[in-house]
């Protein structure tokens, strides 16, 4: 097991290296003048005319051969300097670190109901195969699966913001933002709900929840579909196994067999899919955050990608690769807990 | 025949096939449904009825209403169907081709070549799909060709994985050993005997992916790096509606038509592909049949 975990971790540097090469190659397709923008501390530096632009290209070595530029760039990254993000107007690492708690808060709040709903709906659909609960759940999931996130999100805004004015966009209201940025309010984690509770400020807590509600509903509905499908298929396969028939034959009530004996084993394939899903969500819920103007990693990544802010894009890519590898590892480590047979092999 | 019998028993799948056919008809008859005007350089440039900033509700002249800047929503939805088919089928066809070649080469040669190719697949899998596609589209410029290139570049990997594992599975089957004993060459075995049987799971995946690729393409337009201003593209039109989600006080649903029509178009399009893909999987994979 440990051996396996180590091999997985060894993949990380290879993936990261290839990724950095890929992004750097994309970056090199721009002209030196265009790339200069990434180094310029402010737009004024680029207004100095041809002469000063040439001087700066010289200064930063933007005309050097590919491998020299790559070496210099990767050297900076290895020493912990991810570069300067023109979009955030701060170092990439600072920007990523300050936005991470916001995305984590959103993703965790959406993922937990998503998982519970998938287990509940998926097992029900499997138990009531081809009867009305199964049909309703199948239609519900296939609709959710086909619903474009941006259409569903805009619909949420239309109903819960424009019409009802319950769930406004953004992360906090104006007044709450003022409180949170004041010196009396201690930012322990950067996640608004947790910080509000730790500071004992229930008004802020309520305001943060009000802003989280709509994106959480959107993410849950859009993501629950694929997980429910997996759960349903897996439940169907488990219910067909011999041990289920044996348990029924020895006189155990149907409910106990279905919910205790079968559902547990049916969870296994769900663990893999759920891990992947969580990794993808952590890697930026790009559209959801953009629609609800929720300042997290996804919205930031979308902005940097559209602006071709390469240092930030690479920083985000590195972050995503690390999350993906770690999530896969976690799933692999959780697996023996769910299925003791794995450990003995 | 088998497909028709399946449809007769599954009204939901039948519904999917019917919507898909309806979209095909809309795409084919787009010039009749929404005739382009003679001054248009390309039929994909949505005509404007003036330059007023505020969207206008449905009227006899514009049956679905107009967006900000007075782009005709009906025209955009109709011609957007062609855009959706072009992007969806284009991306999936090229991805299947690349994935099949990579998967087949990896399975055929094995050893170092297989290891290298599959590690390349792993690396591409570790890239955040939408963000990477955004970067590439932003670099290549606006339009459906850059979108197709970007979505293909980061979307071919799952086909390579499936083709490889299917070939490895089928290679050990008896009929392959039989064909080999007759003296068939490796290339002949792969292309004529193995690949045709390996294509079923690819077909299911490709059908499902057509819908989701159209979703991603619209998402690119929605995020501002997709098609040019006024191009008949559903994502573009949904992006226009974003500024008009909040109506005036007392009339929250004032601009409902800006979201409803292009939103319904994307939704139904993706839904139909998913239903058809679901039906194909049920038919081809005995484990999912009941």
Give an overview of the whole structure.
The complex is a heterodimer of chains A (345) and B (290). With 345 residues, chain A is mostly helical. Chain A is 76% helix and 1% strand. Chain A has helices spanning 2-28, 32-36, 49-59, 66-78, 92-127, 132-146, 149-163, 174-181, 192-198, 202-239, 242-249, 254-282, 286-291, 297-306, 310-338, 340-344, and strands at residues 84-85, 90-91. In chain A, strands 1-2 form a two-stranded antiparallel ribbon. In chain A, a hairpin with a 4-residue loop joins strand 1 and strand 2 (90-91). The longest helix of chain A has 38 residues, at 202-239. Chain A is globular, with a radius of gyration of 25 Å. The N and C termini of chain A lie close together (9 Å). By secondary structure, chain B is mainly α. In chain B, 69% of the residues lie in helices and 0% in strands. Chain B has helices at residues 2-9, 11-28, 30-33, 73-109, 111-125, 129-140, 144-153, 157-171, 174-181, 186-222, 234-241, 256-284. Chain B is elongated. The model of chain B has no long low-confidence stretch (mean pLDDT 85). At the A-B interface, helix 1, helix 6, helix 7, helix 10 and helix 13 of A face helix 5, helix 6, helix 10, helix 11 and helix 12 of B. Chain B: This is Peptide/nickel transport system permease protein. Chain B: It comes from Ensifer adhaerens.
Strand percent estimate of chain A: under 5%
The strand line-up of the biggest sheet of chain A is 1-2
Order of helices and strands of chain A: HHHHEEHHHHHHHHHHHH
The largest sheet of chain B is: none
The helix-and-strand class of chain A reads mainly alpha
Mean pLDDT of chain A: 80
Assembly form of the protein: heterodimer
Number of extended strands of chain B: 0
Give the termini separation of chain A: 9 Å
SSE-based structural type of chain B: mainly alpha
Q: Could you spell the SSE succession of chain B in H and E letters?
A: HHHHHHHHHHHH
Shape of chain A: globular
Portion in helices of chain A: over 70%
Organism (chain B): Ensifer adhaerens (Sinorhizobium morelense)
Protein name (chain B): Peptide/nickel transport system permease protein
């Amino acid at each position: 097991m440990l051996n396996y975990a180590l091999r997985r971790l060894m993949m990380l540097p290879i993936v990261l290296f290839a990724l950095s090469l890929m992004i750097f190659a994309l970056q090199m397709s721009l002209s030196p003048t265009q790339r200069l923008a990434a180094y310029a501390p402010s737009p004024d530096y680029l207004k100095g005319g041809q002469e000063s632009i040439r001087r700066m290209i010289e200064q930063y070595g933007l005309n050097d051969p590919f491998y020299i530029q790559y070496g210099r760039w990767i050297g900076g990254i290895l020493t912990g300097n991810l570069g300067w993000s023109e979009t955030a107007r701060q170092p990439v690492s600072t920007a990523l670190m300050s936005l991470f708690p916001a995305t984590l808060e959103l993703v965790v709040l959406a993922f937990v109901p998503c998982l519970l709903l998938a287990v509940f709906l998926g097992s029900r659909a499997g138990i009531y195969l081809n009867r009305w609960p199964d049909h309703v759940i199948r239609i519900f999931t296939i609709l959710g699966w086909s619903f474009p996130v941006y259409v569903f999100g805009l619909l949420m805004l239309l109903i819960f913001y424009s019409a009802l004015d319950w769930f406004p966009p953004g992360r906090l209201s104006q007044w709450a933002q003022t409180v949170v940025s004041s010196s009396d309010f201690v930012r322990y984690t950067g996640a608004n709900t947790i910080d509000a509770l730790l500071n004992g400020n229930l008004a802020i807590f309520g305001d943060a929840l009000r802003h989280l509600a709509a994106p959480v509903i959107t993410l849950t509905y859009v993501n629950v579909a694929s997980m429910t499908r997996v759960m349903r298929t897996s439940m169907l396969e488990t219910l067909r196994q011999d041990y289920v028939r044996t348990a029924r034959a020895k006189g155990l009530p149907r409910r106990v067999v279905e919910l205790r004996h079968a559902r547990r084993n049916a969870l296994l394939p769900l663990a893999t899919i759920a891990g992947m899903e969580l990794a993808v969500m952590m890697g930026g819920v790009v559209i959801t955050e953009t629609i609800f103007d929720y300042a997290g990693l996804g919205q930031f990544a979308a902005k940097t990608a559209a602006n071709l802010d390469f240092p930030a894009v690479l920083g985000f890519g590195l972050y995503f690769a690390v999350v993906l590898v770690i999530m896969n590892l976690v799933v692999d480590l959780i697996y023996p807990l769910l299925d003791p047979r794995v450990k003995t092999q | 025949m088998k497909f028709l019998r399946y449809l007769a028993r599954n009204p939901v799948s039948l519904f999917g096939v019917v919507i898909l056919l309806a979209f095909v008809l809309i795409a084919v008859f787009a010039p009749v449904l929404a005739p382009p005007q003679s001054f248009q350089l390309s039929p994909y440039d949505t005509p404007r009825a003036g330059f007023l900033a505020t969207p206008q509700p449905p009227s006899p002249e514009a049956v679905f209403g107009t967006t900000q800047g007075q782009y005709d929503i009906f025209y955009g939805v109709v011609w957007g169907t062609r855009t959706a088919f072009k992007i969806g089928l284009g991306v999936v066809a090229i991805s299947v081709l690349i994935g099949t070649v990579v998967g087949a080469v990896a399975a055929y040669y094995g050893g170092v070549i297989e290891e290298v190719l599959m590690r390349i697949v792993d690396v591409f899998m570790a890239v955040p799909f939408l963000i990477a596609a955004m970067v590439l589209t932003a670099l290549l410029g606006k339009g459906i060709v850059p979108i197709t290139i970007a979505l293909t570049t980061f979307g071919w990997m799952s086909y390579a994985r499936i083709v490889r594992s299917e070939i490895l599975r089928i290679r050990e089957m008896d009929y392959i050993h039989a064909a080999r004993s007759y003296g068939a060459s490796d290339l002949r075995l792969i292309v004529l005997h193995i690949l045709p049987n390996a294509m079923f799971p690819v077909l299911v995946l490709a059908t499902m992916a057509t819908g989701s690729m159209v979703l991603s393409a619209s998402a690119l337009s929605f995020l501002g790096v997709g098609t040019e201003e006024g191009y008949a593209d559903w994502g573009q039109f949904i992006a226009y509606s974003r500024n008009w989600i909040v109506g005036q006080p007392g009339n929250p649903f004032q601009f409902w038509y800006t979201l409803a029509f292009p939103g319904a178009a994307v939704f139904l399009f993706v839904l139909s592909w998913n239903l058809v893909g679901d039906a194909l999987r049920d038919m081809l994979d005995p484990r999912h049949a009941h």
